[in-house]
Design a protein that fits this description.
- There is one protein chain.
- The protein is of the alpha/beta class.
- It has two domains: about 100 residues, no CATH class; about 200 residues, Rossmann fold (3-Layer(aba) Sandwich).
- About 40% of the residues lie in helices and about 20% in strands.
- A six-stranded mixed sheet has the order 5-4-3-6-7-10, with helices on both faces. The chain has a three-stranded antiparallel sheet with strand order 1-2-11.
Length: about 350
């Protein structure tokens, strides 16, 4: 047996308080009747079935309350097997974590804004496998493809610009690492969302994108930053400077990111205000346009709800209690000692 709402067992405390109250009310009523009738005439004035009916009403109310509370716990026993098929796409987000992502031309910073938007994306996923690749001068799989979005959030929270000691922006390595992270033996729909400022220092991004396109992988690129350039804050204060003492500016390279997206049949979105448009890319391009394949198939136990029986018991008890409360007043014997005495009545 299982329970769908086991926390509702706490309501038994209310039932445990309610039952003594019912008993106290029953005893109080008997006391008042005795006081009204007098000890000597109690049996003469009160019909023999009255006390029995009151006790039965008490029992029925007690059982109805208990059955109602147990019904709220949603008891389940017995089950059926159901085949569950989950369809979706394989999606890997490739996130730039190089020092340039500390730039604050996007509020509060490029890296912080990107993380927030990826977290929002996780809330939109509907049965798709999600993975995360972090890259700078090199790349590695931060979160392998998974349907466990809670675990993916934990990996995402650990992403920062100090995650990879090898600095730079190696787009080719990032795309190839994401490509290898897919289960290439499975012919599933696969997409990459690349979030970066696009400063491809190795110049291999386009070649890696064409390799991904040959495998049927689409790449959607999001350029984050300002083409005019923005200084890179230092953790110790001030801004990063080159060997000549000049402030280093990080610029968005839109042309390179557009080429990568077009080479795979994807699309490019520029983000300057901080809105990465991940929702639009996922809903309008990935979820809507890309064919979905079966990602997971399993047999699942479907437990049968049985609360209906307890509700029925509670209803029957309440209905019977109502009938008892409206039962006609029974007649009893007249007083032997007084022929003019009134008939015995029910309380």
């Amino acid at each position: 047996m299982r329970f769908g709402a086991i926390l509702n067992f706490h309501l038994l405390w209310l039932w445990a308080l309610w039952v003594p109250f019912l008993i106290w009310g029953y005893q109080r009523k008997q006391t008042l009747i005795r006081q009204f009738c007098g000890e000597g005439r109690m049996s003469a004035l009160v019909g023999p079935g009255t006390l029995l009916r009151q006790r039965r009403r008490l029992i029925l109310l007690t059982v109805a309350g208990l059955a109602g509370i147990l019904a709220l716990t949603q008891p389940r026993w017995g089950f059926l097997w159901e085949d569950v098929h989950q369809e979706g796409v394989d999606l890997i987000v490739v996130l730039d974590v190089s020092n340039s992502m500390r730039a604050e031309d996007v509020t509060p910073s490029r890296i912080e804004r990107a993380r927030h938007k990826i977290a929002d994306l996780l809330g939109l996923l509907a049965g798709d496998r999600f993975g995360l690749v972090a890259f700078a001068g090199t790349a590695f799989v931060q979160c392998p493809l998974t349907l466990d979005y809670s675990a993916a959030r934990l990996f995402l929270n650990a992403v920062d610009t100090d995650l990879i000691p090898v600095q730079g922006t190696h787009l080719g390595e990032a795309i190839r690492t994401a490509t290898r992270a897919f289960r290439l033996q499975e012919k599933t729909s696969r997409a990459i969302i690349l979030i970066t400022d696009g400063e491809d220092q190795e110049g291999e991004g386009l070649a890696a994108a064409k390799e991904a396109a040959d495998l049927g992988i689409k790449i959607f690129t999001i350029g984050i930053g300002d083409p005019a350039g923005s200084p890179i804050p230092n953790p110790e204060g001030g801004f990063k400077k080159d060997a000549r003492g000049e402030v280093v500016l990080t610029r968005l390279d839109e042309s390179g990111l557009k080429s990568i997206a077009l080479a795979t049949g994807g699309s490019y979105v520029r983000s300057v205000t901080g809105d990465l448009d991940l929702k639009a890319i996922y809903l309008d391009h990935i979820r809507k346009d890309m064919a979905k394949t079966e990602l997971k198939s399993e047999r699942r136990k479907i437990w049968q709800e049985r609360y209906q029986w307890l509700v029925f018991i509670a209803f029957v008890c309440l209905f019977a209690e109502t009938l008892l409360s409206k039962a006609p007043i029974g007649s009893g014997k007249k007083f032997n000692e007084n022929p003019h005495a009134t008939e015995r009545v029910d309380a």
